[in-house]
User: Fold this.
Amino acid sequence: MNDTDYIPRTLETTLLRALEQFPAVMLTGPRQAGKTTLLRHALASTHRYVSLDAPDAREAAVTDPRGFLAAFPAPVILDEVQNAPALLSYVKERIDDDRGARGQWVLSGSQNLLLAAGVTESLAGRVALLRLLPLSLRELAREPDRPLPWERPQRPPAGAPPPGPGASEPPPDYWPTFVRGFFPQLAAEPGLDPGLWHDSYLGTYLERDVRGMAQVGDLLQFQLFVRALAARSGQLLNLSALAGELGIALGTAKRWLSILEASYQVFTLRPYHANLNKRLVKTPKVYFTDAGMLCHLVGLRDASHAAAGPMAGTILETAVIGELLKAALHHGETARLHFWRTATGVEVDVLAQAWESGAERLVPLEVKTSATATARMARGIRGLRADLGGMVAPGYVVYLGDRRLPLGDDVTSLPLSEL
Assistant:
């Protein structure tokens, strides 16, 4: 990719800061999220690059790790390092031989399941762990005020009178973006067919990552599990019922869900529990980390169908949660996200945990597909504040309009573009 095609990533600043403080940096994330592109762009002048995806490099790293590291001395980027996990012990040896050095080793891979064990055992205390997800809306636009590459304004209904003097532009239409998804290649090459791309991605993921990570024997059954999970995205997840429908053991369903989490395909949103004398729902929800992949798995190819269909709310929630995840992870932080739901049905879509002066605070967000915000949309946040009082920070209704408006009770409407 030429420099003119490179999409700047928020994580780049975090990466450079981590290299100044740690001997090694480990970068993980889903396939095709842009890890290699980011590393080769940000470190082109300082680090040599070698991929352990190449059979000859992988064989050399496995059969003669010390000789391999001598052939590719630091500072170096070792990409797809999960293909030679034993190499991490020898990297640790090199780090310990030169304890004062910083930023000499950059390790990257797509399979967090294998890498996490290797890092824990070999490089604890010596490595900064960073995660890269697909593009955020801000990264996708490249500039805060620049329209998205395939964004189009919403048109008024046929026969509607023209807007009067001083009328504002219609809010942006995000649905083509949601359906297409946020992977960098789809953004860099608008001519790519997103359906074919997602099919290819799923095939590569199933064959390479899933088989490599957990030796899943029945890939067809696993694919059915993934699609069934997509159909339940954003709902309270009854994994026992899902396993029963597919005719698989509950333990198998749990293991497959863990694989999807470890490879950053899904994110489990867990309920927030407070010490209250009331019944709270304790069942988690599962969201796909990319809205485009969710749309593909449930068969949505057209933006207008996605916007008007029964999964519109789930797709928007997926996009919002994805933005919150990226905002945290791309700054090197942990995403502390939950939802709130009582047995009587009082619910808040997302709670972001924060700390102010040592005290826990909860930032509540409701997610609405409407382009018009109303005070009624904040009903769940009001119920949350009645239960938790001072723990609850000012809240927001994230929606598809374009104006910040006070909705009462310390709740503000927040355009998705400002999330």
Observations:
- The chain has two domains: 3-131, 171-345.
- The CA atoms of residues 14 and 331 lie 6 Å apart.
- The domain at 3-131 is CATH 3.40.50.300 (Rossmann fold).
